[in-house]
Structure formats: structure tokens, C-alpha cells
Amino acid sequence: MTAFQEDRLKTYLSAERIAELNAELGARISTDYEKLLKPDEQVLVVVTLKGAMFFAADLLRHLRFSLSIDFVRLASYGTATKSSGNVRILKDLEVSPEGRHVLVLDEIVDTGRTLQFLGNRLREQNPKSLRIAALLDKPSRREIPVEVDYLGTAVEDKFLVGYGLDYGEKYRNLKDILYLDV
Ligand code: IMP
Ligand code: MG
């Protein structure tokens, strides 16, 4: 596949729509955690680099409870548009999730391999609770069932770029989420 050409990128979700989804998700998550958390408890938010950095920056500012942020970087994609099927850790957490309320943020659930791997790995370390939030879901591509607790919206089976999503590390900084119109 040749590189995407900017003039063939079509808007799939506008920056305004993304902002609405984040506000809705943030409100739902806040309501739930306000009930779940005891007064002295806080949440460890685990952000999957690099794609979820924009989602995390926007969503986290809607959350109305005490939290800390840590990052993991997992690789299953390389630079192509197809999952390689196995997941590697390129950067691990800096704090232990043991005994903490853990909220994982990913920008998109595709085959489900990344979140299954990360979810299992976190569960082995005995968090107090573990929930997953994702902005986008491509249900038609799922290979492994993954329970996503908070989902922004389902999307069609299109390769998307922008708002953190890349094609060969390009386009992450675009404000909208776009697809290649062929
Ligand atoms: P999964 O392990 O197949 O669920 O893949 C999850 C990861 O693949 C996401 O966190 C993204 O980094 C990447 N990915 C999946 N779909 C797309 C896409 O449409 N555009 C760019 N990256 C994607
Ligand atoms: Mg990702």
C-alpha cells in the first residue's frame, strides 16, 4: 500500500463530534467512579501510547475524581495497516497496579489483541478494579472478545487516521478522524 495522500483523506468524525463523545464518556465515567471510589481512593489511569494520548488529554479533563496517570506502549501493528497478531511491551508501567482502581484508555479497539493482552497482564497484578474505556470500536474486525466498559462510538471497517491514529507514524496530529477515500 502506498502512503495516504492528504487530498484523498475524508472526514469520518469531526473534531466537534469527537469533543461531544469525550464529554459524554467523561460524564458517564465520572458518575460511575464517584459511586465506586471511597473518599481516600483514587484511580490509576493507564494510557496506551502513542495513539491514545490525544483522547486521554481530552477525556481526562472531563473526569471529576482524583487520579494519577501512567503510560504503556504496546506494539502489534508496526507500520502497516494489519495487526501482526502478537503484542510486545515497548514501555511498561512505572507504578504497580496492585490494589489500585485501574482505568485503561485506548483510542480504538480493532482485533482486540492489544486490550486482551494488557487486560490479562494487569489482572495478574491484582488491581482493586479494572475497567477499559475506548473512544472507537471496530466490532467487525474483532478476533478476540474484549469487554470495553466505556465506548465512545462504533466505527465501520475503515482504516482511520488523525486524533492520535497513525499511518506509518503520520497523521496523529490531525484534529479530525479521517479515512482514505479510494
Ligand atoms: P488491536 O490489538 O487489533 O485491537 O489493535 C489496536 C491498535 O491498533 C490500536 O490501539 C491502534 O493503535 C491500532 N489501530 C487499529 N485500527 C486502526 C486504524 O484504523 N488506524 C490506525 N491505527 C489503528
Ligand atoms: Mg493504540
If you had to describe this structure to a student in words, what would you say it looks like?
By secondary structure, the protein is of the alpha/beta class. 23% of the residues lie in helices and 30% in strands. The protein contains three helices and nine strands, in the order E-H-E-H-E-E-E-H-E-E-E-E. The strands form two sheets. The chain has a six-stranded mixed beta sheet, with helices on both faces. It has a three-stranded antiparallel beta sheet with strand order 1-9-8. Helix 1 crosses helix 2. The protein is globular, with a radius of gyration of 16 Å. The termini are close together. Inosinic acid binds next to strand 5 and helix 3.
User: Which percent bin holds the helix content?
Assistant: 10-25%
Question: Unreliable runs, pLDDT <50, ≥5 residues?
Answer: none
Report on the biggest sheet: 6 strands, mixed
Radius of gyration (CA) equals 16 Å
Shape field:
globular
Bound ligands: inosinic acid, magnesium ion
Order of the strands making up the biggest sheet: 4-3-2-5-6-7
Count of individual beta strands: 9
Mean pLDDT: 93
Give the SSE order as H and E letters.
Answer: EHEHEEEHEEEE
Number of helices: 3
Could you say which structural class the secondary elements and strand pairing correspond to? alpha/beta
The end-to-end distance, rounded to whole angstroms, is 12 Å
Amount of beta strand: 25-35%
Question: Helices, strands, pairings?
Answer:
Layout: E1 9-13, H1 15-36, E2 43-49, H2 53-60, E3 67-75, E4 88-91, E5 101-109, H3 113-123, E6 129-137, E7 150-154, E8 160-161, E9 177-180
Parallel strand pairs: 2-3, 2-5, 5-6, 6-7
Antiparallel strand pairs: 1-9, 3-4, 8-9
Helix pairs in contact: 1-2
